[in-house]
Design a protein that fits this description.
Distance between the termini: 20 Å
Number of strands: 12
Mean pLDDT: 82
Largest sheet: 5 strands, mixed
Shape: flat
Structural class: alpha/beta
Radius of gyration: 33 Å
Number of helices: 23
Low-confidence stretches: 260-273, 394-411
Number of domains: 6
Bound molecules: zinc ion
Amino acid sequence: MKTILVAPHLLKLDRIVSQADQLRLVVHSIQVQVRCPKCACISSHLHSRYERTLADLPWEGIAVQIKLEARRFFCDQENCRQRIFCERLPELAARYARKTMRLNKTLQWLGLLVGGEAGAKVAAQLGFGVSADTLLRRIRAANLPAVSTPKVLGVDDWAKRKGQTYGTILVDLERHQVVDLLPDREATTLANWLQQHAGVEIITRDRAAAYAEGARLGAPAAIQIADRWHILKNLTEVVERFLQTKYSALQVAAKQSRPQPVATTVVSAETKPPPSTKLARWNERRQARYEEVRQCWQQGATIKRMAEQFGMHRRTVRLFIRSENCPQRLRPRSRASQLDPHLEYLAQRWADGCHSAADLYRDLRLRGFHGSQSLVRHYVAQWRSALPPELKRARRGPETTKPAVTERKKLLVPSPRNTAWWLLQKQEKLEAEQQVYVQRLCETSPEIVTVQQLAQRFARLVRERRAQEFAPWLAEAATSSSQEIKGFVAGLKRDQQAVEAALRYAWSNGQTEGQVNKLKNLKRSMFGRAKFDLLKARVLAAP
Ligand SMILES: [Zn+2]
């Protein structure tokens, strides 16, 4: 129960002394049954009184200090060696603590949720007055929750320092919970963890050899599942590498599939003013608006009213009021989004019923998208809001609205990466132009046709988890003339059990990657202080 005075059944408030920057609560203990800490017998034989000072939760930003009159007692039990003892008030504070339990707990939450540096700033505003270091100590002192061993474990790596050192994240896929962070991605580290946490039945992982080895050593009975997304990523990379050796074919196909000269893009570019003058005009309008806003403000208009009147966001109005000069924009706003080349594809997937931003993001990455998952999430939010309520949170659903899509077309030789992607797609899903290009490409070389067919079949059998088609496919692909496909087959055979498991079980590492993203954000918010133990405490202990 929450009470203004901490532990009211143990304490009696005598008076409140109000000072400029703090309140002092003078209290004394009214605990009736006081037990000797040694023999646990109740004693009422008072020895003396003494004073303790404890910091408590602030009131309205004002620090609160508790002056506690506590008591010492005699223990009268004959066979007890404790002659005199101080009464314990465990609900109030630990024995020698200078802060109340609830203050420490609050500081711990603050540290875990906000971090040391930012937490210290928040604390100062609230009247706690603690340093970042104190908060960091609180985070370290947090009891990490005891997690039960997961049955289904997701394993992935995460960059402690990008490109230099990596750690491993372990996720309970059933409970959607990070269960541990490991300081590296070595096989033995994972093996040790698994040995100490016996009972893991299923392990999903990417196709890194170290994790395969670690899982084999640490949990030999567990079923390992290679992540389907990583398998498909490998496939796309294999086809891409294959196409890199066929670049002249790509050029020929691009030239042959080029439509008759059309200059629409050039014409429209001429009619548009160059971005610099457009930007200048935009800044002019902004300056005028800025002056209007400042004038209204001086005349006493409220931010809310001005936001309504000018159709601006309140944040912008506030920015204008606070800025001594009109904030200028240096770069045009409508820079091409990293998503632009993928919008059509995104719309198609959405219309097909894939409404999970995480899944869409993974697909886009296969196509060479380097933006963030939140960019995708934001973009599809407009479509999501148009969905019927029962579908809004659903991962997949029937066909709904087909969104409008902006198109950008370029007449260049497509990259091997894009070409690989188009080869792997169902052809009817491609734009007409891309379809023609793929057709021409296939006409230039029968080897490309064979690789395309093999790759498409493999992609389908992975996506649709057709386990029984895997072995025949392996046998056929092994006879391919392409070195790249042969290498791919050899890799699959080395990891055959895990790949087969990926076709039999629905578990995947998608969720684990989501947790890695959360971890990245947390790490970023911790600036230079993202020491491993702190990060781990925050990941595991934060709600
Ligand atoms: Zn005793």
